[in-house]
Amino acid sequence: MGDVAKLLSSLSGAARRIVEVLAAADGPLSYEVLRHILRATEEDMIEALAEGVRSGLVRSVQGPPPTYELAPDLARRVQDAIGGERVERLRRQVAGARKRVHGPE
To answer: Which CATH number fits domain 4-102: 3.40.50.800, 1.10.357.10, 1.10.10.10, 3.40.50.360?
Structure first.
């Protein structure tokens, strides 16, 4: 994938945040969880997800609900690029959003 930091810097703020959140999640996330974390309008989410997909960093996962993940082997590289403290903060946000959107496990 080349230099991850360079790829991230080429994205809009919203698309970059989606990539960072997916990296911290260590797995796929539903559209609703992503939208809850980003607090974006539906239009802004659709545009940011489309940008992420076009960049080759984000891909759609089959099946309902609409779900997204990072391209293979990218999560660790993005985590390294954004730093451990930010990753941990994003993981807490992901856990909270999952509970609010999907209910307690």
So the answer is: 1.10.10.10
